[in-house]
Amino acid sequence: MDFRFSEEQTMTADVVRELLNDVCQPADLRRLMGDGAARDEERWAKIVEMGLAGALVAEGKGGLGLSAIDFVQIAEACGYAGLPEPLVENAGVALPLLAAFSENARVAALLERALAGEVTVTVAHPANPFVADGDTAEAVLVVRDGAMHLVETAKATLVAQASVDPFRRLFTVEFEPSDATLVAGADEAGVPLAAALDRGALFAAAQMQGIAQRCVDLGVAYAKERQQFGKPIGSYQAVKHHLATAQVKIEFARPVLHAAAAQLEQGDLYSRARISQAKLACTDAADVAARTSIQVHGAMGYSWEVDVHFFLKRGIALTNWWGGTAFHRERVAARVFARPLGPEHTFAREA
Amino acid sequence: MDLDYTDEQQAFRQEVRSWLEKHVPGKPLPSFDASREGFEAHRAWERVLAEGRWGMVTWPESYGGRGLDLIQWLIFEEEYYRAGAPLRVNQNGIFLLGPTLMEYGTDEQKARFLTSMASGDEIWAQAWSEPQAGSDLASVRATAVLEGDEYVLKGHKIWSSRAVFADWAFGLFRTDPASQRHKGLSLIFFPLNASGVRVQAIPQIDGETGFAEIFLDDVRVPAFNRLGGEGEGWNICMATAGFERGLMLRSPARFQVAARKLVELYKAHEAEVEPTVKAAVLQSWMDAEAYALSIYATASRLAAGGHIGAEASTNKIFWSEMDIAMHKAALSILGARAELLRSAPEAGDIGRWLDGYFFSLAGPIYAGSNEIQRNIIAERMLGLPRA
């Protein structure tokens, strides 16, 4: 029993954090928004150079062979930075799912290019009503009647669905299912799809955790600077207590998130409940932190002038992405009402 | 990151479990705050624990402990609560004063006080607060004046947990009469049966006498009873408060067992309760798990040589608010029966939820109010300016 990250895990996350700190500040986001671009190609190239695209694909299939626990802090850093590029969705979810079907020649060819960072792939998972980043992805994995299809985006009809988050590029996808698009029947697709949902929910939770901390940090920075009645507003107890309350939410979402990442590979009732718990806890933390930050910023918090709204909006988007509150609460209920409870079962796994 | 117990840890769990199965009293003991009888029944249980060397598992073997690490301590606590073993009447000694004594006491003091604490022969109360000093401990006015090799204690302490029946108390005293605030304070022990000590029970909200006022009128104790140097009381006290708010006072197992009972209660009344209660029940379970995971994470860090930081404050807020929410959920399941006292013929064992609810209301107040904890988080963790 050792509930700590390895030095290597922390180092990897630190490198990503530093990179994002350099190239993904709110000013960079505003610039991107001004250009009307979906992606900052230079920033994306730097991320790809780090080899992160294949982070979660097995080494035998050309990836780095990392596990969820190695990647979770990276996903947190992406949330903290408000990263618009699809590192989490592409590397965290789509490529491991793609790799599950790598015996298919078409998949293998695409996977090779995706691992090299030449192209991205996105997923139209039944858990989500839309496809993210469809316009920049080379191909989309789509489920029809439980079967898995791989469709080049150029051959599908993508209809943009504007999101509250200026950096979320959402689409509905229509295509003609055929033998040519079919990758796996329902029998084979079920397990990888369930795994994709778990990774999607876990890494969405991780981004929420990052968003929550960013919102508190923005609030703290503002509260130290902004003066009212001759003193920084952060010296007033009412303001302190708002921010401390949000920070407590964050502190107690974090260990759940990290335990969920460590237990993901179990793929059982217990690990699924933990992932859902993490999604709920991190979502709650992000919600409280974003609203707190807006309150601390006062009227400025309600404007585009300050940066909180970027994180508020990403939080609104991710709240229901890879399963909303009701869905995840039911997955927790499935564990709570069906298996023994109590302190000796904290780290339980299926026998 | 390895979230599996080692074989040694599993074996340890089995050892604890089988010992507790043999020794935990079959019937719950009467409350230690309600009567002398209940208090002494708990003292007897402390002695049973001490004989099995299960009283102070993290203490060194030389003081009756087992020298266990924090993960083993957590496992012990899990089994302790799982077995439904009695609450610890000497928790002030075990979890607060004990660790402080080990860090700041002389060898002679450790020998004198730790062994009798471990055996249950001396049960401790805390005498920190004063009528005008709640969370503002630095404003204590009780004095200790050195005369020869004795301190003469004078003053008025209040909200002293366990003081009605306990044997000893530890308190903060102003040893430098000219001093201000947190300077010039010393931590001094005194026997509650000493000449000049008068203890007056304060009925709690539930009618029990868990705390008391202590009037000190020229109470003479040897200078030996001062822990740490003269004037160092504040720093030592802060270390103790860290133990109190942090890991030791509220181990997670207590809440995980409460969450399990809450789920059982919900299942028994599922058909009668409104749907929102289900969400509250699930939230209680999740919060108890989150707290346990957090403590495991902290324990892992401390075991690797880390130091406790702001966890002391975040934990205290989290468990105290969780405790209230859990009991509120239980009362909402019980509906109109929630108001029944334990003594009501129709109450069965549901009265304990009301007792627990009352007790939970004290959580955000004692061990440093949650307002104070939020100030600490804001200032020390987030770096906001002091008022």
Number of extended strands of chain A: 9
Query: What coarse outline of chain A follows from CA principal-axis ratios?
Result: globular
Q: How many helical stretches of chain B?
A: 11
| Class by alpha and beta content of chain A | alpha+beta
Percentage of residues in strands of chain A? 5-15%
Q: How much β-strand is present in the residues of chain B?
A: 5-15%
Query: What is the share of helical residues of chain A?
Result: 55-70%
Overall pLDDT score of chain A: 97
Which pair has the most extensive contact?
A: A-B, 51 and 59 residues
**Helix percentage range of chain B:** 40-55%
Compute the average pLDDT of chain B.
Answer: 91
The general outline of chain B is globular
Note poorly predicted spans of chain B: none
| Neighbour order of strands in the largest sheet of chain B | 1-4-5-8
What does this structure look like?
The complex is a heterodimer of chains A (351) and B (387). Chain A is built from eleven helices and nine strands. Chain A is α+β, with helices and mostly antiparallel strands and 351 residues long. Chain A has a four-stranded mixed β-sheet with strand order 1-3-4-7, with helices on one face. A three-stranded antiparallel β-sheet of chain A has the order 2-6-5, with no helix packed on it. The two termini of chain A are 18 Å apart. In chain B, a hairpin with an 8-residue loop joins strand 6 and strand 7. The interface between A and B is large, with 51 and 59 residues.
